[in-house]
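Suppose a colleague, Dr. K., hands you the sequence of a protein chain of 143 amino acids and asks what its three-dimensional shape might be. Before reaching for any lab equipment, you can write down a predicted structure in token form. Begin with the sequence itself:
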Amino acid sequence: MATGYEERAGRKREMDLTSCSREGEGREVHWLPCGIDYDGEAKGMEEHFRSSVVTTKEGTKEAYLRGRHLKGTELPLPQGYSAVVLEKRHEGGDFQEGSKSSWEAVGGSPCITYWNHTTNPSETDAQRRALEFLDMNEALNGE
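The predicted structure, expressed as tokens, is then:
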């Protein structure tokens, strides 16, 4: 089982990545240009987001999320990397000494769709440049 374990400030964290290696467990991963003041299950995203995604003839995607216009594109991750969708399984009190957080991978994807506010995706977008760091790091460290 692929797991990770960390203890910090008296709190234990575990991560189970077992399902990442299973076939057919794919999920779509979206990188949105926003902050969300909500810490619960995202119900009804299909109603508010996916149903309105349109691919243009230039290959970009357009969507409206809660009335805001977004433009995006699918971006493959570098060789050997994948995006992981984690689900939190919390045990014990929130942020209390001795509490334990467990995370389980519920899916993954070899690419992400990133979104900009009203501007077309380009080679100079921060999201693309952040992922280029992974390739550059591998080249520098020879891994």
